[in-house]
Design a protein that fits this description.
By secondary structure, the chain is α+β, with helices and mostly antiparallel strands. It has two domains: 163 residues, no CATH class; 288 residues, 4-Layer Sandwich (Purple Acid Phosphatase, chain A, domain 2). Helices cover 20% and strands 31% of the residues. Helix 5 runs parallel beside helix 6. The longest helix has 15 residues. It is globular. One of its GO terms (molecular function) is hydrolase activity. Pfam families: DUF5648, Metallophos. Keywords: Signal.
């Protein structure tokens, strides 16, 4: 339909040779599923395209309106192998719907034509063929979804799930984004009430959702400056965060000292108050984001109605992940709670976010910030040091950015600081994770000024992700 390449045409001819198809009764040979399958959507017709040829994604966008490019959806096999089945690509000339099926004759009887660009996948869930690909239908059109976020978005738009159609391998490469202290972006500094930087950053993440294969967004605290005393600051932050919710991107926001009633107008600690008590008071933070964290799918929290200590789970890169957000300078029982949650999920790779952990020089802070209960060093000793599945720790609070490798139960965990407190731009840290190569690559750029900080680029190897 798209004037496919010779490679795709050759592939279609191979698919047509039924004699080369391996018997389905054999155990699936998932090791052969190394070919990226790209996904794109036509926003007007809602047609869905899956193709192993990246050049077809580009031609479909330029000539046929498939402008919503969603990157690599999964990995499949380019040729027959034990236990794999052929996914024929079919096209309906009237509805312009694409359809992938193991039974081309039934599709032809329904008015579809055989089209190039198929692939081989598993009919069953096997050890390494563990990514279910769901098919949805609405008004005679079909869509395919892998991630829970994509599935939820289709269901919310009225698409009906037809269940799992086949099993593939996960794209091992994905990213998470970490927003630093945004306290200067919510109407009190920089651009004032017309400041666009916070919303510009979240829109950048939305726009790059699929090209980055962005699976989770974190905020390391100080979402506002003194929003517990000036609620319009939370209005601005809330509107910026809604952009993530519109595309079902899961996220967590940590509580910083400026997000609590310990900070008064002007951004300083309130004089004459018991700040060790008021630092635990953040009714606006809880009120504005109740039921919204991780797009309403939090797995649990330390105290009912309190968003300072929460956890969420997700799957990406073919592995399982646990995100734990800890309160600032935590109480001992909150640390015990976090330790128990992590120990109860030993097969998940753990990401911890808390407002204060590294200092501006990259060392673990040893004090309580003047009005906390414990110190970041106690976070390390209680929650990180003896848990071998902890992989990342994110914090803000001071300085610009830093990085430190720490020991977690004998394995390496990487701690990142990002704060900046910029009045002119809007940095965001991107961490690209490759579970097949066991690497983590991080960089910091600002979409508002198209600026990057090369000195903060890093790559960590031998991450030993939990499998």
């Amino acid at each position: 339909m798209f004037g496919v390449s010779k490679q795709v045409c050759k592939f279609a001819l191979m698919l047509a040779g039924a004699a080369v198809i391996a018997p389905v009764s054999a155990a699936p040979d998932c090791s052969t599923m190394t070919m990226p399958v790209y996904q794109s959507v036509n926003p007007q017709s809602q047609a869905n395209l899956l193709t192993p040829t990246s050049s077809e994604i580009d031609s479909a966008a330029q000539s046929y309106g498939f402008t919503d490019k969603r990157g690599v959806a999964f990995l499949a096999a380019s040729g027959p192998a034990n236990g794999l089945v052929t996914l024929w690509r079919m096209y309906h000339p009237t509805t312009h719907d694409f359809f992938w099926t193991t039974n081309q004759q039934s599709a032809i009887a329904a008015g579809y034509q055989l089209d190039g660009g198929g692939f081989f996948a598993s009919p069953d869930n096997a050890a390494d063929c563990n990514v279910p690909v769901y098919r949805f239908i609405r008004n005679g059109m079909h869509r395919y979804a892998v991630t829970p976020a994509d599935q939820s978005m289709l269901k919310a738009d009225g698409w009906i799930s037809e269940g799992v159609m086949f099993w593939a391998r996960a794209n091992p490469k994905f990213s998470i984004a970490v927003m630093p202290d945004t306290q200067m972006e919510i109407g009190v500094d920089g651009g004032g009430k017309d400041d666009k930087r916070f919303g510009n950053r979240t829109q950048f993440l939305v726009d790059g959702h699929y090209s980055l294969n962005l699976q989770y967004v974190l905020h390391s605290g100080n979402v506002v400056n003194w929003g517990e005393r000036d609620t319009p600051q939370y209005d601005m932050a809330s509107e910026a965060i809604k952009r993530l919710e519109q595309v079902k991107l899961p996220y967590l926001l940590s509580v910083g000292n400026h997000d609590t009633r310990a900070v008064c107008a002007g951004g300083s600690a309130c004089p004459g108050e018991k700040t060790w008590e008021t630092v635990r008071q953040y009714p606006n933070f809880n009120g504005y984001f109740k039921g919204r964290f991780s797009n309403g799918s939090l797995a649990g929290q330390f105290a009912s109605g309190d968003l300072a200590n929460v956890y969420s789970t997700f799957e990406a890169g073919g592995l399982k992940w646990l995100v734990v957000s800890l309160e600032l300078w935590p109480r001992a029982d909150a640390l015990t709670w976090a330790d128990q949650i992590i120990k109860s999920m030993p097969t998940r790779n753990v990401i911890i976010v808390t407002h204060s952990f590294l200092n501006s020089s990259g060392a673990i802070r040893a004090d309580n910030g003047g009005y906390g209960i414990s110190s970041p060093q106690q976070i390390y000793n209680t929650v990180i040091k003896n848990n071998p599945n902890v992989r990342f720790v994110f914090s803000g609070h001071e300085g610009d950015a830093a990085r430190r490798v720490v020991s977690a139960g004998g394995n390496n965990a990487v701690a990142y600081l990002q704060a900046f407190h910029s009045t002119t731009t809007n940095p965001v840290r991107i961490v690209e994770i490759d579970t097949s190569a066991d690497t983590a690559t991080s960089y910091i750029c600002a979409p508002y000024t198209n600026q990057c900080w090369n000195q903060y680029w890093s790559q960590d190897v031998s991450m030993k992700y939990v499998r």
